[in-house]
Q: What sequence folds into this?
């Protein structure tokens, strides 16, 4: 169970102030991504599941309150009030696996303002990070054009937590396996693995290593052929495959050098040896750009292992996400700051043939529009069908078919920009006017 | 306790093969960074502490073995042997907080090859990630030139685990506080925080919000002044400070707009109001480049809050780290692959006035040289003095004084390149020759 002190100090200070003043009004916060990174044409919503688990278990423990009293001088009455907080609110969200765009709420939470504020960092962290990874991995799936992808990122993600999430998010968009055994166990994924250079080195010769490994895993050996010399390694693998009459899931793995050229020559050697069923697996610093290049050039590679660059989303390791107050105590709210203005009210995203429309939740749904946000928690209880990784995978596959070609492009993708409904525009103008009045300023847009 | 299945499947397959063949020889693996990212002039070693905890607790549980037998068809005798594995080996490492460069081992582990192989992903993950963050944060410290830095990254790190590690690593290099309350509790750090825009918005007017918050935290309020209009917000803050006669740690926080211009005008307003003690706090997408620009331009900013870009090390979110077999069963080992050749043998880094020298561990230490790697675990037991964050902080501060100006530069830093000792060069040539013989190839370098 995650600690409910996984929050920022200011959230506690604000919550304390709200509780002291008896400000128990319901607040709605909206979590969205302001702008997509230049190299993203779409995002894949992810990270909801751990958020719901966190909200279900939310509550400060005795030891948490002791710490706040002892180290941060919170007063006893505030500690009592903080200690009583649980999450009994509502959450509407875009289910994991769905494709989304900038300014579309991924999650909206409605609860008394103190608790809605306290959970902000956790929700932002998980949704931002997992959406980052699922979106990066989805580009690999597009680039691979039906070839297999395997998650190899455990050793280079930003923490072990992150590695588990990466295995889960890559599976969500169609990776066929992960090297991470704990993740495979936890999420019911297929674990996959080959051998390391150190294994080959620990034997007197490459052929000794290959023979030994193949005897131990006769039906699923992938020979790592580049410890000494790649094509020589392929010939050694062929010799062992023939010698031991291996069959089943047998492959060779190329992990360095010019993968296009090496894969072609490896395929030739395998075909000459009458081993058409032996697969070629490629790895080594790959990402969607490199996978795309290899696939476009017709490299005879059957599967790609991707690690570091996908596991940290190297070109765009975070998203410009925000968690903004959009309604408080029945009133729509906005932020006015020049470069970070927000739109008020509880929202819905309506998806149709003509693209996405961001409007108010209360607006009627047109017959040819599908609402993306669904209630996933009401009164603190999960609602709706249980969502598995299979559900998310199916949602992703379906949504992907509807994505415009220019958004799918690996180089210079262009993202769809959702329109705003008239009702939302009207509400935004009203709320801005009121906010300027509060601030004693005039609206520069008028 | 972390699961010992946090490993890659191929490690288990290799371990199974080693155990089956009775290959219990001692292996030494060396963990190092091959090359620094272009925007790094130095690295700060970090991540050792969680590795030692993991090694101490290493061991597959009954449920882990059940999974391996049931889902992965590991045989009973192999499962028994895997289940008996514990870490009783030796670890030499560079203590956390020390400054290091490319090709310098950060950690060397010696243990029977099966277990040394199984722990690879965990060690690589933690050392790579935490060194990445400590190195990025260290550049912020250099850029801030004595001004305070606060970790604001919780909401945007790659997972919650990552957020805790970021708080720890930023503290290691001199950040004065973190917004992350759980991290503050866990590592004994100072928690810090201001207020959010949503707080200001939830009151009828900005001045109501400021008054309420200041009454609740009279001795440590930092007013967030950009919800409506920054300079107007500063005037409102001044009014409340004077009205309530606030003293103590009082500040205003600028979170958007032109921070150089706004900080100058804010300082003028505060000085005109005779409030020289009120501090200016800046935040909003900052990293070392932006902090450096502001400091160089003389912006009157007292403290910087840095979040996303440091918390994910946005410009270089991972390092080109490796965990390579350098000795097995008494024999020095190398990998020959063209682009990833390695050097054999147990190593030491000797630091002197004339820079770093990478040599063999057995080489004598010259009087004017300091060895960087120290034994931190022998026979599976921690050794040496208990190392706290304070120890690491002191090591970092001392090492930083010895870093060349060109490596400290924020733009286009040039990293020191350690030399290689003659003994290591000799051993490398011998091991390469033997490896080429094994592979039945001739060494292209001869």
A:
């Amino acid at each position: 169970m995650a600690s409910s002190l996984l929050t920022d100090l200011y959230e506690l200070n604000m919550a304390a102030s709200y509780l002291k003043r008896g400000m128990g009004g319901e607040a709605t916060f909206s979590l969205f991504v302001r702008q997509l990174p230049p190299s993203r044409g779409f995002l894949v919503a992810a990270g909801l599941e751990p958020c719901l688990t966190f909200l279900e278990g939310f509550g400060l423990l005795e030891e948490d309150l002791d710490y706040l009293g002892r180290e941060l001088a919170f007063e006893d009455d505030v500690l009592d009030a903080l200690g009583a907080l649980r999450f009994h609110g509502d959450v509407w969200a875009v289910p994991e696996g769905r494709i989304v765009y900038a300014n579309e709420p991924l999650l909206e939470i409605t609860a008394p303002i103190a608790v809605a504020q306290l959970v902000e960092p956790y929700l932002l962290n998980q949704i931002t990070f997992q959406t980052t990874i699922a979106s990066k991995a989805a580009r690999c799936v597009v680039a691979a054009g039906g070839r297999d992808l395997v998650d190899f990122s455990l050793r280079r993600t930003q923490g072990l937590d992150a590695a588990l999430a990466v295995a889960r998010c890559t599976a969500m968009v169609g990776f066929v396996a992960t090297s991470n055994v704990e993740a495979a166990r936890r999420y019911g994924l297929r674990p996959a693995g080959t051998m390391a250079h150190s294994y080959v080195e620990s034997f007197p010769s490459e052929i000794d290593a290959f023979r030994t490994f193949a005897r131990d895993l006769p039906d699923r050996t992938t020979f790592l052929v580049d410890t000494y010399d790649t094509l020589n390694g392929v010939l050694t693998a062929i010799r062992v495959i023939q010698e031991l009459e291996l069959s089943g899931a047998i492959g060779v793995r190329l992990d360095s050098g010019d993968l296009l050229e090496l894969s072609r020559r490896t395929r030739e050697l395998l075909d000459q040896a009458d081993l058409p069923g032996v697969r070629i697996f490629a790895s080594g610093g790959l990402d969607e750009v490199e996978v795309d290049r290899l696939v476009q050039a017709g490299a005879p590679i059957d599967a790609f292992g991707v690690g570091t660059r996908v596991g940290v989303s190297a070109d765009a390791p975070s998203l410009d996400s925000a968690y903004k107050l959009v309604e408080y105590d029945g009133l729509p709210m906005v932020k006015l700051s020049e470069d970070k203005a927000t739109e008020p009210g509880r929202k819905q995203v309506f998806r149709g043939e003509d693209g996405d429309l961001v409007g108010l939740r209360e607006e009627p749904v047109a017959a040819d529009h599908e609402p993306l946000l669904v209630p996933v928690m009401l009164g603190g209880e999960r609602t709706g069908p249980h969502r598995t990784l299979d559900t998310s995978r199916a949602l992703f596959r379906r949504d992907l078919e509807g994505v415009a070609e220019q958004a799918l492009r690996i180089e210079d993708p262009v993202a769809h920009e959702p329109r705003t409904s008239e009702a939302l525009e009207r509400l935004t103008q009203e709320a801005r006017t009121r906010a300027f009045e509060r601030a004693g300023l005039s609206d520069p847009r008028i």
Observations:
- Chain B has two domains: 9-133+319-439, 142-311.
- Chain B touches chain A through 109 residues (CB under 8 Å).
